[in-house]
Write a structure and sequence with these properties.
451 residues; alpha/beta; FAD/NAD(P)-binding domain; Elongation Factor Tu (Ef-tu), domain 3; 2 domains; 6-stranded antiparallel sheet
Length: 451
C-alpha cells in the first residue's frame, strides 16, 4: 500500500479531508474533475463551491449545529476557518459570501506544500492505494458505476433542489421589511409579508404551476428536510405557513402585527446585492418560477439572478458498507465522507471529511484509526451512517435526536429543554477537548491541532 492518499472530490468534505491528511504530514492528491467535466449544479471551478443555500445554520450556543461547528473549530477545520473569515449578516445563523468562501479554500489548498490538486475525473476505486471518496451528491456516472459494483446495490439516488436568488435592488422595500425572527440578529433578513388573500392567490398558483419532468426511469425519492416548495404545498394549504413561510416572530413594523405568512430573504454576499429565498428550493419550469416569485409581495418586479433547479443526489447505503472510522469494511483502503455517506448538510459533510482525512493519514502511517467520541456531533453522525437501520436508510442532519442521550438522572435534573441542551453541548465539548488532547499534539485544547 502506497502512502500517498487520493482524496476524490473538491467539495466541502473533500477539501477538509485533504487538508487534515496533509496537516498530519501525508502527501495528498486531491482530485477535482471541474472544469474538465462539469456537474449539473456547479458554476465555477473553485473548490468547496456552495451550490445551494449560503447558510451553515445556527451558530447559537446550546444548539446541535453549534456543537458541530465548535468541534470543527477546535479541530482546526479549514472549512470553519473559511466560513468564519467570510461570514455575512444572517441573524443567529452562520452564512457566508459563497464566492469569497470558495476562493479562500481554493487558495489555502493551492498553497499547501503536501497537496497536489489534480484536475481530472477519478473513475475507478483503487485496489491498493488509499482513497477517500468525497464526491458528494453529484458523483460522476463512471464512479457511480464503480460504487455500484462494490455495493451490489443500484438504489443510490434521491432528489434535491436549489433555491432561487434575486437582485437586492429589485426588492420593493416599501412593502418588505428588515428583521430577524424574534429579533435574533437585528435586521439581517428581508421579509415579504402576505395578507390572507395574497397568500391564497400565491398558494393556488404554486400548486398549479408546471414542474420540470423527472426522468422516466428514475424513482422520485425526495429528502424530507429539503422538499421542493411545491411538494410541501401539496401537503395542505397551510403547510407552508408552518414551514418556510411561517410568520411567527416577524411583526411587520408598518402594522405592529405578524403577517398571515412571510417569505424571508437571506443575504448572499458581503456586497449585499443578492438575496436568496429561504426554503424556496423548487423544480418548477423557469417561466413558472418567475411568475410565482413575482406574486410575493415586495418581489413583484424581482430580477432573478439564479432560478431554483433540481438535481439527482447520490448516497450509499453506509450502514452496510462503513465502520465507525468511515472505512469500507470489505475494502480497508477505501474511505467515504460527505453527503455520499448519508449525512445531509454542509458542516455534517465537513465533519465526516475531517475524520476520514485524519484516518486516511493514520492508515498511511501505520497508526491506529480513530472513532470520534460517542456523544460528540461528529461521533453521532458517524455512528448513524455506520449503524442505522439499512431498510429505510435516509440522509440525516445533526440534531439532538441522533446525539447520545443523557442519563435519566440528568434528564430529570434538566427538565427544561433549553437547559438540558446547553448542559449536553457543554459536556460534549469538554469531552471533545479531552479526546483531541489525548489523540493529537496540542498547545491547549481550544487552539486546535498543533502538529
Amino acid at each position: 500500500m502506497t502512502t500517498k492518499i487520493n482524496i476524490v472530490g473538491g467539495g466541502l468534505a473533500g477539501a477538509e479531508a485533504a487538508w487534515q491528511a496533509a496537516e498530519a504530514g501525508t502527501e495528498v492528491r486531491l482530485f477535482e474533475m471541474r472544469p474538465v467535466s462539469q456537474t449539473p449544479a456547479h458554476r465555477t471551478d473553485k473548490l468547496a463551491e456552495i451550490v445551494c443555500s449560503n447558510s451553515f445554520k445556527t451558530d447559537e450556543p446550546g444548539t446541535a449545529p453549534y456543537l458541530l461547528k465548535e468541534e470543527l473549530r477546535r479541530g482546526r477545520s479549514l472549512v470553519m476557518e473559511a466560513a468564519d473569515a467570510n461570514r455575512v449578516p444572517a441573524g443567529a445563523a452562520l452564512a457566508v459570501d459563497r464566492g469569497d468562501f470558495a476562493e479562500h479554500i481554493t487558495r489555502r489548498i493551492g498553497e499547501h506544500p503536501r497537496i497536489e490538486l489534480v484536475r481530472e475525473e477519478f473513475t475507478s476505486l483503487p485496489e491498493e492505494e488509499i482513497a477517500v471518496i468525497c464526491t458528494g451528491p453529484l458523483t460522476s456516472s463512471a464512479l457511480t458505476e464503480e460504487i455500484i459494483k462494490m455495493t451490489g446495490d443500484d438504489q443510490l439516488y434521491f432528489y434535491d433542489a436549489i433555491a432561487p436568488i434575486v437582485s437586492a435592488e429589485s426588492i420593493d422595500m416599501s412593502i418588505a421589511f428588515r428583521a430577524a425572527r424574534y429579533g435574533k440578529g437585528g435586521d439581517d433578513y428581508i421579509n415579504c409579508p402576505f395578507t390572507k388573500e395574497e397568500y391564497e392567490v400565491f398558494y393556488n398558483e404554486l400548486v398549479a404551476a408546471k414542474s420540470v419532468p423527472l426522468k422516466r426511469f428514475e424513482e422520485t425519492r425526495w429528502f424530507e428536510s429539503c422538499l421542493p416548495l411545491e411538494e410541501t404545498a401539496r401537503r395542505g394549504v397551510d403547510t407552508l405557513r408552518f414551514a418556510c413561510m411561517k410568520p411567527r416572530g416577524l411583526p411587520d413594523p408598518k402594522t405592529g402585527r405578524e403577517p398571515y405568512a412571510a417569505v424571508q430573504l437571506r443575504q448572499e454576499n458581503l456586497m449585499a446585492d443578492a438575496y436568496s429565498l429561504v426554503g424556496f428550493q423548487n423544480h418548477l419550469r423557469y417561466p413558472e418560477q418567475k411568475r410565482i416569485i413575482r406574486l410575493i409581495p415586495g418581489l413583484q418586479n424581482a430580477d432573478i439572478l439564479q432560478y431554483g433547479q433540481i438535481h439527482r443526489n447520490t448516497f450509499i447505503n453506509s450502514p452496510k458498507l462503513l465502520d465507525g472510522t468511515l472505512r469500507v469494511k470489505k475494502r480497508p483502503n477505501i474511505f467515504f465522507a460527505g453527503q455520499i455517506t448519508g449525512v445531509e448538510g454542509y458542516l455534517e459533510s465537513v465533519g465526516t471529511g475531517w475524520l476520514a482525512g485524519i484516518n486516511a493519514a493514520k492508515l498511511a502511517s501505520g497508526g491506529t484509526l480513530l472513532e470520534a467520541p460517542s456523544n460528540s456531533a461528529i461521533g453521532s453522525l458517524c455512528r448513524y451512517v455506520s449503524m442505522a437501520e439499512t431498510k429505510n436508510f435516509q440522509p440525516v442532519n445533526i440534531t439532538f435526536g441522533i446525539l447520545e442521550q443523557l442519563p435519566v438522572e440528568l434528564r430529570k435534573k434538566y427538565r427544561r429543554k433549553r437547559e438540558r441542551h446547553e448542559y449536553q453541548v457543554n459536556l460534549a465539548l469538554r469531552e471533545w477537548d479531552d479526546w483531541l488532547a489525548e489523540n493529537f499534539e496540542f498547545s491547549n485544547a481550544t487552539s486546535g491541532l498543533a502538529g
